[in-house]
UniProtKB/TrEMBL annotation:
Organism field: Spiribacter salinus M19-40
Residues making up the signal peptide according to the UniProt record: none
Gene3D superfamilies per UniProt: MFS general substrate transporter like domains
Highest taxon listed in the record's lineage: Bacteria
Entry keywords, A to Z: Membrane, Transmembrane, Transmembrane helix, Transport
Record's protein name: Major facilitator superfamily protein
A cellular component term, taken from the record's GO annotations: endomembrane system
InterPro entries linked to this entry: Atg22-like (IPR024671), ATG22/LtaA_families (IPR050495), MFS_trans_sf (IPR036259)
Length: 420
């Protein structure tokens, strides 16, 4: 970040996190689950609506698992990381905005658009992560990665706050009802996603194509097959990916199960909305600070600090009795969540061959989608086994500790992060 052009490139790259985090907060975590049950599944039981939503989420993850490594390898081969990102972002934003026009009780079209938007959101992230390698020198990857996550927390939190205010006070925004405001949130999110992707489209350079015979599909398949065949050459990568899978499963479970856990303790829905907003806005400066910590002490140290923080959060979470404690825990999650995510991305970037960033970030995102296979069931089982939902929080400690132990075994010799 020493020259004006590099600053502009980094800023434009990071603004995509601001752009696409709107989908994560407004659609994935906020409005779609509520409208899917209350508007698009009217007349169906909550169990049926939840099952349909579960299938939709599962299908989206399965589709990404199938295509992620291949499309990443193909982008490496053709040098089209930015174009692929923008193509998926445009389709995803269109699918998101189209949700506003799905009529009442039309759960199947709503689920279809949701799956399309989610797949495009996750696929575009693959290419966004891969571009980190080319927008900044290795010495700045931790800082730049943290900067991106920080803007994502701030942008997603601001838009979510605006949408919540619109639902609570529709006349302020010229809307007729709470339902109109909630549906309009999908259009606003789609537009937000597209508009704030434009700086990346204008300023971030495309990665060079991988040398080869020019056949994108067959070359990508050969590249992917070669990587799978020579796994031993990338042993540190796979050790890290297993560690990442474990601790990111625990991190994801705290996000997915927070509302359910809070409701089971008797907290009101407004308490949970406030907690989500606290996490978003605390995450903004915290992700930047954790990026600097990664520069100073190494990415691995920063991640381990964050995981230790999660262990403490789980212990306190099992003991809380008041909404104010829920708010404080939300703030603590904001302190460490973005930092763990940001430093994981930059740590991984230092382990992989740069010319195959798309393919390897395909595996990275694939493992991220496999997360939540262990955590949520383990979370529920601990509550059943011990007869109290509070014990569920303690189950996640196993995932954070196991991930941390494996992370300490990753050999970074020859990697970019000598302080990892």
């Amino acid at each position: 970040m020493t020259t004006a052009p590099s600053q502009r490139i980094v800023r434009s790259w990071a603004l995509y996190d601001w752009a696409n985090s709107a989908f994560a907060t407004v659609v994935l975590a906020g409005f779609f689950p509520i409208l899917f049950q209350d508007f698009w599944n009217q007349g169906a039981s909550s169990a049926v609506a939840s099952l349909r939503l579960g299938w939709a989420n599962g299908l989206a993850s399965l589709l990404l698992i199938i295509i992620a490594p291949l499309i990443g390898a193909m982008a490496d081969r053709a040098g089209i990381h930015k174009r692929a990102l923008l193509s998926f972002a445009l389709i995803g934003a269109g699918a998101t905005a189209s949700l506003a026009f799905v009529p009442e009780n039309a759960w199947a079209p709503a689920a279809t658009l949701f799956v399309l938007g989610t797949v495009c959101f996750m696929a575009a992230n693959l290419f966004y992560d891969a571009l980190l390698i080319s927008v900044a020198p290795p010495s700045l990857w931790h800082r730049v990665s943290g900067y991106g996550f920080a803007l994502g927390y701030l942008g997603g939190g601001l838009l979510y706050l605006g949408c919540v205010l619109a639902v609570l006070n529709p006349p302020w925004f010229g809307l007729a009802s709470e339902l109109n405001a909630a549906l309009a949130a999908f259009v606003v999110t789609g537009l937000w996603w597209v508009i704030f992707s434009l700086p990346l489209a204008w300023d971030v350079p495309e990665r060079a194509p991988l040398a080869g015979d020019g056949a994108v599909m067959t070359g990508g398949l050969r590249q992917l097959r070669g990587t799978l065949t020579h796994l031993r050459a990338y042993r540190p990568v796979w050790i890290f990916l297993i560690a990442y899978w474990l601790y990111i499963d625990g991190l994801g479970t705290t996000i997915r199960m927070a509302v359910s856990y809070g409701r089971s303790l008797g907290f009101e829905q407004n308490d949970l909305i406030v907690a989500l907003l606290i996490t978003q806005f605390v995450g903004f400066p915290a992700a930047i600070a954790m990026g600097r910590l990664g520069e100073w002490a190494g990415a691995r140290t920063g991640i381990l600090v964050g995981l230790a923080g999660y262990v403490g959060i789980c212990i306190w979470g099992a003991l809380i009795t008041s909404p104010w404690e829920f708010y404080v825990i939300a703030g603590l999650i904001g302190l460490v969540q973005g930092g763990v995510q940001a430093l994981s991305r930059s740590f991984y970037a230092g382990l992989i061959p740069p010319e195959r960033a798309g393919e390897f970030f395909g595996f990275y995102n694939l493992l991220g989608k496999f997360a939540a296979l262990i955590g949520p069931p383990l979370f529920g089982l601990f509550g059943v086994w011990f007869g109290d939902v509070r014990y569920s929080m303690l189950a996640l400690i196993l995932l954070f500790v196991a991930g941390a132990l494996l992370l300490m075994r990753v050999d970074t010799q020859g990697g970019h992060d000598e302080r990892a």
